[in-house]
Each structure stands twice: as C-alpha cells, then as structure tokens.
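Collaborator request log, item 7. Partner lab (contact: R.S.) asked for a structural prediction of AAA family ATPase to inform their binding assays.
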Amino acid sequence: MADQLVDREVASEQAFVDRVYQQLERAGLAAQQLAKEGHSRGRLGHEGGLVERDAMVFQAAKRIAQLDAAHEGLVFGRLDMTAAVDAQPRYVGRIGLRDEDRDSLIIDWRAPAAAVFYQATAAEPQDVIRRRVLRCTGPRVVGVEDELLDAEALSEAEATGRELPIVGEGALMAQLSRARDRSMHSIVATIQAEQDKAIRAPGKGVVSISGGPGTGKTVVALHRAAYLLYNDRRRYESGGVLIVGPSGVFMRYIERVLPSLGETAVALRSLGEVVDGYRATRHDEPAVADVKGSARMAELLRRAARQQAPGSPTEFRVFWRDDRITLDRGALGRVRRSLMSQGRRNKQLPRVSAALLDAMWKQVRGERGREQGREKFDDDMLSRDDFLDFALNWWPPLDAPTVLGWLRDPEFLARVAEGVLSTEEQRLLLKSWSGSTPTPQTGDLSIEDVPLLDELRYALGDVPQKADDERDDPMELIEGGVDIQELMTAADREYAPTGRAWAPPTHSIEDDGFAHVLIDEAQDLTPMQWQMVGRRGRAASWTIVGDLAQSSWPAPDEAAAARASVLEGKPVHDFHLSTNYRNSAEIYDFAAAYAARVGLRADLPDAVRRTGVAPEVVTGVGDLEAATREAVVGTASKVAGTVGIVVPAARRSEVNAWLASWPELADDARGARAAIDSSVPPSGDDRVVVLTGLDTKGLEFDGIVVVSPDEIEAESATGRSTLYVVLTRATQLLTTIG
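Returned to partner:
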C-alpha cells in the first residue's frame, strides 16, 4: 500500500513536471525568436534599429542561458497552504516560469514568495500544511519526500475533500542519507530556517557565517550569492561576484552549484588563481608557507620594489659645451628618492628623463651652456642614444615576477630582509626559490607565491597608459603597439627614451574590484592572502565562511588583524550554524573526542542522525598497504558514493601506486592516480581518490579511510586541526589505520 501511494504521488508530480518542461521548451523557442527578431532590427538602416537589435539580442541571450542552466532539477519543491491563503499548490524551482496564460507555474526559489518554503517549521508553520521536496534526475521525478507542518490544518483540509498524503521520512533525512558524488549538488530544497536567515541577510557590509563541520556553511554561502544576484542584479552583475575557495579541487567540487540555481555571472577562483594572469596549484612545505604568509612579507616586498634594479647602470657621464656632467651614485640616489616620493615606481616612468635632466642641468656652469639655455640642453640630451639608453636601463618598467626574481639573490634578500626576517627564514625562502624564477611561464609558482606577486603589483603600480583621444600627450608613446619612431619628437622622446614602446599590462590593478566577495574556509587565509583578496573587495559587500578550529594557519591573531584591516568600517552581521547535517552522530562524536583530547577549541554542532555504525580504528598494522587495501575495498562495497583515502603528503604518490595495483578497484579508481590538483578533474565515475589532509578542506565523502593519522598530525604546527578536519569528512563510514 505504501509503495502504491509513493508511485501514485510520483506519477502525479511527474505530470506537472512534464508540463513545466514543455513550457520551458516554449520559453526557449520564444527567446530564440526574440534574438532572430533583434537581428532583423539591425538591418533597418538607422541607429535606432541598431540599438533595438543590441538590446533584444542581449536580453534573449541572457534568457537562453538562464533556461539552459535550469534543466537539472528545475522543479524541486511544493507548498500546500491552508485554504484561507491558497487552495492551489505552489511549486518552487530554480527559476520562475509562467504558462501561456501568464499564470505562475513555478516560483523562483529566491523570490519573497518562496521564502516560506525554507522558513516554515512545525513550531511556526506560517500557513503551510505540507512541504514536499521533489527529487528529480533531469526531467524525471524519482521520488518525493514530505514534511507535515500543521496536523490540525491537514485535518481541516481533508474534511473539505483535499487529499494531502504524507510520503517519506522527511526531506532533510533523505538528503543526508543520499550518496555523495564528485560535485556538490545544490541542496536548496533542504535549507533549514537558521540557514535561511544567513542567506537572506542584508546586502551591505559583511555576513560572517560560522559553525562546526557539516553545518552547511558552504552551501548557505553559495545560495546567499545567488540570492544577492537575484535581489540586486544590476549591482552584482555589473560589479561581479568573486568566490574564493581553498583549492582547485574544492572549486571544481562546488562549480555546479550556482549554475544549477540559474546564476552564471560569478567568478570562482581558488587561492592560487585570485590574481589575473597567475595560476598555482601546489603548496609550499609548511615552514616556508608560514614565512610567505606572514604580514612581515609586505614590508620586505615594499622595500624590494623600491630598490635599484640589479645590473642597472650606476653612473652616467657626458661632456656638453664647456662642462663635464656626471650622474654618480649619490646624484642618482637623490633622483630615485625624489621620484619614489611621488608615487608607485612604474607611475614615475614619464617623469624619469625630466628628473635626470634637472639633476644634470644643475651641473651646467659654463658661459656657452648657460647662454644656449635649458631647452637647447634638453633637446641635445634627448637626441643622444647613450642618454636615452641610460634612462631606460636605469629606470626600466618592471613587473612583479621580475622583482620577485631579485629575491633569489642571497645578498639582495639579506639587504631588504634586515630587521624583518631571521637568517633561518631567509634560508627557507631561498630554498623554495632555488630553481627557476617563479613565473606563470615557468609554471613554478606555489599558492603562497601568488599573494607576494600581487603585493608587488601594487607596490610597483601599472605602466602608465593613455586614452586614444589624448594623442597630443607624449604619454601615448608608452602604449604597446604604437609606431613611435614615426611620431616621436624631441620632447616626446623624454617619455619613451629608446624609441621602444613600453608594453602596458593586460590587466590593470584598477580593474580588480568586485561588488561582492565570498570567502570559504576563511580561517585558513594567511595575512598576505587577506591583503590579496581584500584588494578585490574594497567597495564590496562580503560573505565570510569559516571555523577557527579547522584552521591551518598557525598565527590566528596575525590573521585576525589582517582580516580586521580589510573589513575596517564595514558593518558585520554574524550567523552561527549549530546543526551538523553531514556526519552521523557516531562519526562526529569520534571527531569531537579527538578535538577534546588534543586541546582544540572546537565548535561542536549537534549531529542530527545516527547510523548505528561506529568508526573503525585499526592499530598494530604490520603491512600498511594490505590493511589499507582491506579497508578501502570494504568501504567501497558498503557505500554507493565516493570514498576518500586521506594520507600524509609524503605518502600520496606511494598510495596512488597502491590504488592503481588493486584490480578490484580498477573501475572505481580510474583517474585517481592523477594529482588531485591537476587541471583536468577526475571523471564523474571515479569513486575512490587519494588526498592529503589539506585537500579535504570543504569536501565530503560517503566513506573515509585515514592512513597514518599520526603522520598527518605531525606534518605541520597545525596538524591537529588538519586531522580534525579529515575526521569530519565522512557521511557514513570512517576508518583510521595506523
């Protein structure tokens, strides 16, 4: 009987979903027709037609993209209200959609009318009798789960002939028991009331979302980004939304969430990709990362950006009329300090020749020289190749990788690091840069190098550029691609002294700002990473997600000061999530006991479900590979979803080799031998993967097998926090070996 009821309800919802998809297809055809009509307007032969064309084609393209993004799980919710409010069911979906009569078929989940779907509870049903979640695979309804919120109202409805059967164990428990796969699918249908408050918090200032493992912080933050885009689309689409996560694998894990909610105007970047033009996927060893992440590096880099370029000329001599003119170290030092006092280094490029000529003119004492005057002196100097070459070589346009490369010289590093870094810290830096200079071209950047490059970009400034309509300004000669040999006059050459145009950057530091910045795993950001991200959100609103007990940064006070500096003057709205939806109570009790045993000040949420299966602890292992194989094979046979093998960083290659040799897991582990930070993500069929402790940040798996947890704990000063994170990644089964 129960199965027949479920089948009947699924068939009923399928009929409605079929109708929705038919209307979605009509909407897509209408959008395509709008685009076609827009193109035809462009052939009218007047400016008005062109304007109409652009507007119509733009709107059509936006609508088509929105409709395309909505196909997965288009309809996911249904509300049955009391008769006094609405006797007809209200359906909630990823986008809003109307039928051919302009009546609402589904309500956009972000619309005010849909808020009750998340906010209603049994204590405060808000006129909702039954809340139903539709589980769909593409256009097919595969199941329904109901929550009865008002039993008295249900009786009244049934008395009037309304049938509202209650199916399933409740949407939340069903969501929690489902297998995890490679992508975090939106759990928009199971967001609870405390989470909804954070999602719909005020758009200005900072929304800080804290909570222990498994409380849904990431999902809430992503849905908040979608909500902001919906609520103030003009602001956030024009300014952009930046979402920053801890790693490339994490970003691939969440990348489907916002598109599945109908939002595509969002930049998703890992910490190694925040700065345009750079991409890093590897971490430095912990001791090096601690030095590079420290706020002290900002002072060191500021000093480096002000130094004379290594190998640049230190003297210039010329004879003019009756005078021998010399620019020695002292004179050049005074010119350099004068220029640097006026702003960033590259910004001074147009002033370099004039500043040198000023210093040289002061040495003209002879009667003939004074009679001919300053203008003749400038013209004569600017016509000399030796002076022009000297000016460019003494003050060349610089980029961040070049200056970072200077720090590979022990003498240079010691000079700029005096009083900032210890000798041992300098040694660690030199060791990390002992190969080629870390640049995007060499591919040798670490994630910790990227904030250093960003700091240098801002210390150096952009090479000046000019607008196309300012062609009477000598600054035009700085632009790349200009044939300045033909345009150059004596006065112009002052600004491009060798006749070679200075190439401007492809991306200006002035273009870095976003309207909203979302940071996940914020507790891991170093002071230098806070500065890097902060530059992209000076005028932005923020969403910050984190849990201090999971931090991998060993100096929390330093990071807190950097965060406070970035957010200074912005109102902060704090939200705390207290319910663990991810782990079984057995798994989280095990992790919480570990946190208490090692002295972590962990935020301990309440786990809401039990499986009756306690974590397994395997000790006294003689053959580590055999024990790991047995645990992984056993876990994979018991769960339908993903299995993570978490290992110390030093063992990753070794365990990947083991996995490749286990025939019973060959299909499940296909592709797992590739590095977890590869630019090519594993295929959707791969269930088993090898990760380090840091790789697991923000992820979850049906089963976790932890290999040599004592080695993970000993990897860094924050190894205990990392192991605590690892122990909270499993939803169903957890095994530790070693």
